[in-house]
Amino acid sequence: MLLTTKNLGITFGGLKAVNEVDFEVERGTVAAIIGPNGAGKSTFFNLISGFHKPTTGTVTLDGEDLTNLPAHKTVRSGMARTFQTTNLFMEDTVLDNLIVGHRVRTKSNIFDAILRTPRLRREEKESRERAMESLAFAGVDRLAERTVGSISQEAQKRVSIALALATEPKILLLDEPAAGVNNEETEGLATLIRKLVEHEYTVCLVEHKMSMVMGLADKIMVLHHGEKIAEGEPKEVASNEAVIEAYLGAEEEDDA
Amino acid sequence: MDALGRHWKKIALAVIFVISLFVPFFVQNNYFLGVIILGYIWAIATYGLNILLGYTGQLSLGHAGFFGIGAYTVGVLTVGYEFPFWPSLLIAVIASSVLGFLIGIFALRTRNEYFAIFTLGVGFVIYLVIERWEGLTGGALGLIGVPYPEGIGPIQFDGPGSLYYLILGFLILTIYIAWSIANSLVGRSFMAIRNSEELAAATGINVGRAKQLAFAISTGVAGLAGGLYATYIGFLGPAIVNVPTTFEILLYLLVGGMGSLSGPLVGAFLVTTLFQFLQQFEAYRLVILGPLVVIIIIFFPKGLAGLWHAAETRIRKRMNKNPAPDESSESAKEEAR
Lengths: 256, 337
Description:
CATH topology of chain B: ABC transporter involved in vitamin B12 uptake, BtuC
Order of helices and strands of chain B: HHHHHHEHHHHEHHHHH
Helix content of chain B: over 70%
Number of strands of chain B: 2
Distance between the termini of chain A: 40 Å
Distance between the termini of chain B: 22 Å
Largest sheet of chain B: 2 strands, antiparallel
Radius of gyration of chain B: 21 Å
CATH class of chain B: Mainly Alpha
Number of helices of chain B: 15
Helix content of chain A: 40-55%
Number of domains of chain A: 2
Structural class of chain A: alpha/beta
Oligomer: heterodimer
CATH architecture of chain B: Orthogonal Bundle
Shape of chain B: globular
């Protein structure tokens, strides 16, 4: 197992936002976390990636205990994540947004910067190359010199995945990668996620669009009120009574 | 086209540099030379603030306090303890930087407006300490007779002319440091924090430590400006450390353009000069200044540097119109934003 959580939970002022969740992601697969609004999906992501400190339980990535590490250190250990809103800097070029992604793998400091040392030059070059590779992987390298504000929503989603890739992660946590894009574009993003797995990355995503998750995930976990109510292959989960009641039913009502 | 633009900038820089070298020959009037020298000193202080506010996005309102730490370190050491100037200046920079780092440990636990208020408090406390600690700082009477720097080899610093070159040298050094930070992975980390702390942390940047580094650099540069101010003016009073000075520096940065390399110089230089010419209006200067700040923030949030950048983009677009349709459509999109 690449990623394992045991008893993972957090309490916000008496409310158990995530309640003792055991979860595992196998290397080279896509795992999806679904659930109705407020089910604790994003909170679960925040726990794994060090943005929240858990009240109970542990997080292990590739054998390394990450439980109480701050976010930036989990990145060093191979955790990369995207956000629902891409958070990119709109006025800068795509490339400029991405170069900093490799920072976590570099060592040059303020003195390197002022003295323009060979180490700084080498690492700048490496970061730039890594950024271009990641953009090419995500299929947006031709947009490198455009400002983020001038490219489409879907392209921005791809750029934020590329930014995560630039950190050289073992696992990518994608928080609603297809939010705010149309069906055709969603299919394109699904293809990108498949490509990630083909290249031996591991992906864990939170997603609202059932169609995307069903066709993409090797395994699905369903959260409801912070608790795991089901887990398994897409087919099993889709036919699970508790899931239909908690989530699918609710969604149909919403859609109607 | 791009190469032409770059060359154009280099030529302009060279011209400005040559002009700055000959300023003392053109300006025989010591008063005007003094205005220019002070402009340079405030520009250095503004570069310090730009590293924290412009690059890292943290608004500190304690900047004058650290300027004061630098100024008074030089003042107290040279006047009170008859230390030579150069080691005093070095100690001043280190002291203000280390103090900034230490205060940053606490101040940076707060965010946004709370950070601004916290640092405002810090700046005011520094002012109070300087004003009340009469035995050390001379209190409200201040320190008189801060000496000019000792000569280095054949170069003597004995008047405004030679001091002009000294301070110009430090200004160029400061601009170089600002440039080298902006064009490095360290600077990119700062700007990532300005953009989004969450995303910065998710890319593996130690946000707390990077902010603290930016704070320490910023206060160190403020201390440098303070130390130069002390030796140039020769007299120190607590007023210079007080809160209004912070807002003046902030104004220079807003006028010039936050986060840009030329902004601090342009802003500090222009506004200090303007101040001198408006001196006859005394307190009414603020009546002119207040609305000016409001107008800048509403209509030109990126200051003069931003205005210049927009004009440049427009000119390029116009020049590109015919030969390269691809590029022009791109810059058109850029502008449409």
